[in-house]
Amino acid sequence: MIEALNLVKRFRDKNRGEVRAVDRVSFQCRPGEIYGLLGANGAGKTTTLRLLATILEPSEGTALVAGYDVKKHPEKVRSSVGFLSTATALYGRLSAEEMVEYFGRLHGLDEPTLRRRLDGLFDRLEMNDFRDRRCDKLSTGMKQKVSIARTLVHDPSVMIFDEPTLGLDVMAARTIVGFIRQCRAQGKTVLFSTHVMSEAEKLCDRIGIIHGGRLLAEGTLSELRGRYGKQDLEEIFVEVVEQ
Amino acid sequence: MRFRNIGIVYRKELVDSLRDRRTLISMIVVPLLLMPLLTIGLGALSAKLIGQAMQETPKVMVLGGEDSPRVQAALAALPDVSIVPAQPDYAEEISSKQIRAAVEIPEGFDVKLARGEPMQVKIYMYEGDLKSSFGADRLQKFFRDLRDRAIRERLEARQIPGSLIRPFEIQQQNVAPAEKVGGAILGGLVPYFVILLCLTGAMYPAMDLTAGEKERGTMETLLCSPVSRTHLVMGKFLMVLTASLATAVLSITSMAFSFGMGKKLLLGMARGAADAALQITITFKSVLLVFIMVLPLAVLFSAALLAISLFAKSFKEAQSYISPLMIVVVLPAVAALLPGVELNAALSLVPVLNTSLVSKEIVAGTYHWKYLALIFASSCIYAAAALAIAVRLFQREDVLFRT
C-alpha cells in the first residue's frame, strides 16, 4: 500500500529561485493494483517516486509506504520497496550473481535465505547462463533481468518503477511489462511512471495525470473517459494539462 | 548490525576496486616501481655521473707564462690535467665545454716568485658545472701547493719556524652517527614520497566511489538499499583509506628494500664519493613510527578526497577539483625539505608539513616524543573533521543529486 499525503518537494535553482517540483500530491495505490503516474518530462514524476522510495526527503507532507512513514522510518520503507528506474544502473565490475547478492546482503538477508532467493530468482528469470558474467559484459536485456532480480531479492511488497522501459528495445521492454504484471498478480502494490500513453492504457488499473508538480486528475481509464468524454488517453491527457 | 552493513559495503568496494586496473596501478604498481626507481635508479645514475666526472682528465688551457718555463714545466708534468694550446677565445671554449678551465699566469711569474713580488693568478671556470669545477680545483690545488712551498722556502731562508704563519690547525670532524648524516640528506625525501603516495593512492578510488558512481548511475541504485547513508559513506571511506594505506605500506616496504639493495650496489659504484648520503640505516622502529604518524594523515586525505569528489557530478569534474589539492599537499611537503625548516610547536599544528617534518626526524633517528604526540593528536583532529564533513555531505540531497 502507498499513500501519498500532500507531498511537497522544493528545490533551490540558481536561475529560477525556489522551484516546487512536487506540489501537494496525494494519491493511494493499493495492493494488487498498478497505479500509473502519467506526465511529460519535467512534470515531477521522478521526484514523486524518489520521495516515495525515500531517496529524497519531502519538504512538506508525507507518505505511508507499506505502513511506514517515509519521514520517520525511511530505512523500513526502503526494506519494503523495490525501486527500478533507468537511472538505477548495475556495478559493471561485479558479476550478475555478485550484484544481486550484494543487495540481498544490504537488505539484511541471512546466508541460507539469500542462497534460496538467488537460486529462485536466477531460475525464474532464466539468468543462470550469465550468472558469473560481469555486468558490463551483458546485453541490455540481460542487464534488465539483473536489475529486476536486484529489486526482488528482498521480496518487497511495494514496487516502484520510474519510466522502466525508457530507451529499451521491444524485447527488453516486453520483459519489463511482463514483470510488472507478474508483480500485480502476486498481490504487490505497483506504482509506475511513464510518458508513453499506450503503456499506461495497457498496464494501469488507475492513472494519475501529473503536470507542473501537481496531480491534476486521477481515476481508472473508464472513469477518465467518462469524465472527459474522450476515448483516447492522449486526448484526455492534453485536455487535463491545458485546463 | 551497524558494523555488518559498513563491512558489506567495504567488502564490495574492495572487490570492485581490485578488479579495476587503474586502482591497481595507483595502489600497487606505482609504489612498488617508483621507490626502487628513485633510490637505486636515480642514485646509480648520479653516482655514475660523479664517478665519470672524477675519472675524466680535464682539458685546461694555460694563458701566458711564456717567460716562465719553470711553472710551465710543472703544469705540463701534472698527471691529472691535460694542457691544450692557448687560444684567445678561452672563455667561449669554457662556456661551450670544449675545455674545463683556464689559468692565466702573470708576466714574469718565475722571476717575481723568486723575488717575492706580489702577483695574481687567475683561474677561469664554468660556475656550477661539475666537470669544470673538478678542473679548476686541480689547478687551484697546484698553485696553492706552489704558494705554500714558496712560503716555506722563504721562512726557512730567514730561519723562521713555520708555526709563525700557522699558529694553530683547524680540524672539522663529524660526530653525528652515520645514519643521522644520511638521514639529513635523504631523510627529507622519504616522508615526502610516502605522503605523496598516500594521497595519490587514495585519489583514484575516492573519485571512482563517488563521482564515478554518480556518472555510471549506480549511486541511485545504492541509495535504494535500506542501509543508512552514514554506513554507506563509512564503507566507502574505509575502502579509500585501505587504498591510501596500502600505497603507503607498499612504498615504505619497497623503500626499505631498495635502500638495502641500493646501498650495496651504489657503494661499489660511487667509489666513496656518495658515502655519507648512503650511510642511511632505516630501522624497523623508525619505519613503524613513520607509519603511525602517517596514519591520521591518510585518514585526512581519504576523507577530504571523498568529500571533494562527492561534490562533483562526474569523474572529470572530480579530477579538476582534485588537481589543485595536489599542490596544496605538495607545497607543505616540499617546505619540509627546505634547509633551515625545523620542527617547533607552531609548525606541529600545520597539517602535512608537521608529519613531513617529524618523519624526516624519525628517519634520521631523532625522536621528539613531545612533538610526536602533539602532531599525532592534531592530525587526528583534522582527520576527524574531514571525515565528519564527508559524512555530512553524503546526507545532503543537493550534493548527491547535483545537476
Any overview of this molecule?
The complex is a heterodimer of chains A (243) and B (403). Chain A is an alpha/beta fold. Chain A has helices at 45-52, 74-80, 96-106, 111-124, 140-152, 170-185, 197-203, 221-228, 233-242; strands spanning 2-13, 17-29, 34-38, 60-65, 68-69, 81-85, 158-162, 189-194, 206-211, 214-219. Chain A has a single domain (2-87, 157-242), classed as P-loop containing nucleotide triphosphate hydrolases (Rossmann fold), CATH 3.40.50.300. In chain A, 39% of the residues lie in helices and 27% in strands. In chain A, the strands form 2 sheets. Chain A has a 6-stranded mixed beta sheet, sandwiched between helices. A 4-stranded antiparallel beta sheet of chain A has the order 2-1-4-5. The longest helix of chain A is centred in the C-terminal third of the chain and has 16 residues, at 170-185. By secondary structure, chain B is mostly helical. Chain B has 2 domains: 2-51 and 178-400, no CATH class; 56-164, abc type-2 transporter like fold, CATH 3.40.1710. Helix content of chain B is 69%, strand content 4%. Chain B contains 17 helices and 4 strands. In chain B, α1 (2-18) crosses α11 and α13 (284-311) runs parallel beside α16. The chains are: A alpha/beta (243), B mainly alpha (403). The A-B interface holds A 11-12, 53, 55-57, 75-76, 78-79, 81, 83, 85-94, 98, 102-103, 105-108, 150-151 and B 1, 5, 8-9, 12, 15-16, 19-20, 216-218, 220-221, 223-228, 397-398, 401.
